[in-house]
Structures are given as C-alpha cells and as structure tokens.
Amino acid sequence: METELPPRHPEAPAPGTELGPHYAKCFGCGEQPDGLHMRMVAGDGLYLDSTFKVLEAHQGAPGLAHGGLLVCAFDEALGTTAGTFLRRPAVTGKLDTDFLRPVPVDSVLHIRSTLDGVAGRKVYVSADGRLDGPEGPIAVKARGLFVTVKLEHFAKHGRASDIAAVTANPSMLEVNP
Ligand SMILES: CCCCCCCC(=O)SCCNC(=O)CCNC(=O)[C@H](O)C(C)(C)COP(=O)(O)OP(=O)(O)OC[C@H]1O[C@@H](n2cnc3c(N)ncnc32)[C@H](O)[C@@H]1OP(=O)(O)O
After folding, report:
1. Which of 44, 75, 132, 162 is catalytic?
2. What is the CA radius of gyration of the chain?
3. Where in this chain does the record put each Thioesterase domain (predicted)?
4. What pLDDT digit, counting tens, does each position of 43-96 carry?
5. What are the phi and psi torsion angles at 95 (to 5°)?
6. CB atoms near residue 175 (< 10 Å)
7. How far is residue 30 from each of residues 10, 34, 47, 100, measured CA to CA in Å?
8. What are the chain's domains?
9. For ligand 1, atom 52, which residue shows the shortest CA distance?
C-alpha cells in the first residue's frame, strides 16, 4: 500500500496545546461520569501525547483495567490524532491491539499516538501506551486504519436527539476535528 506522510495542517493546534474534548458526550474525552476523561496534548510533529487514568469503574478483573476499555483509549487517541493533524473527522475502520502487560487500577497510561501515513481517505495511525511515566515500559500497542468522512456521516447515522442537541448547542462539538 502506497502511503504519503501528510504535512501538519497549518491550523493544527500548536505544539504543547492541550486539546479540549472533540464532543462533550464522548466516552473517551468528554464528560461522561464513568468515561475515560482522556487528556491530550499536541506534539511538535504528527503525534499526540495522551493520558488515561484507570479508575474503579474501568476494571475487567480485580484491580486490572478491562481490555476493551484500553482499546477504547487507543481508539480515542488514534482517531483524535488523525482528526487533529488533517483537520478532518475520521472514523475507525480497523483497530489492532497488542496487550503486553497488565494495567492496574489507579495507574496512568501514557499514550503517544502518531499519524504514519495517508492513502486517499485512509489514515494509518499507531500508538504505544506506557506505564509509570512517558518513558516507562510499554503495556499496550495499537495500529489503526481510520477513514475520513464528511460531517454528513454523523448527521445521517447518529441518533436524531443527539444531532438536534449539538445543532442547538454547537459548542458541544469541536468540528475540526
Ligand atoms: C476526532 C474523532 C475521534 C474519534 C475517536 C473515536 C473513533 C470512533 O470510535 S468512530 C466509531 C467507530 N467506527 C465507525 O462507526 C465506522 C463504521 N464504518 C463506516 O461508517 C464505513 O464503513 C466507513 C466510513 C469506515 C467506510 O465507508 P465508506 O465511506 O463507504 O468508504 P469505503 O469506500 O467503504 O472505504 C474507503 C476506503 O477505506 C477502506 N476501508 C474501509 N474500512 C476498512 C476496513 N475495515 N479495513 C480495511 N480497509 C477499509 C476501503 O477499502 C476503501 O479503500 P480504497 O479507497 O483503497 O478503496
């Protein structure tokens, strides 16, 4: 597959900028009570640095993070990486995850997610999640294929009441991404 490394979009947030939620009700980055409440900072290249603190509600086994919620954290980080540097929304087509170490409750996963290339509407992204700090051991790795979509994608497929809510209150949504 031929891919290109795109330029960092000129309107991408400056390096060091903390990103706000792309959608107020997003489970990954929004205000959902038991959500992941991820925090993300733009890097100086085509990467984002994110943190996810594993809480009581995120368990799958006693004292350990649920694997599906770890996948959710990577979905969020990778999708936001695609959207942030292309300034276009992108949805998950494919997501592949390697779980290398257990992730305990109360730990913070430090995720660096990178835009690796684009081919038409396909966006290739990857990420490493580390424990005990940004230089700690890798606990989870992920690679994803995201597909850029127009805003109509959400208007067409989303629940009507939620589309109406963001139409009435556009500040709930960061349009780009
Ligand atoms: C800022 C945002 C942060 C978001 C973080 C969270 C992200 C999410 O959770 S998004 C929700 C989960 N994902 C979804 O709901 C997506 C559901 N799927 C779809 O809507 C559609 O299948 C969609 C949009 C991905 C593709 O459909 P469509 O627009 O018709 O495009 P389509 O022509 O099929 O595919 C475009 C290209 O992508 C490729 N592609 C699409 N899906 C896949 C896949 N699963 N595997 C490999 N390639 C794929 C196609 O082969 C095609 O490639 P090419 O251009 O070389 O022919």
Report:
1. 75
2. 16
3. 63-132
4. 999 999 999 999 999 999 999 999 999 999 999 999 999 999 999 999 999 999
5. -145, 125
6. 10
7. 25, 10, 20, 27
8. 18-169 (3.10.129.10)
9. 122
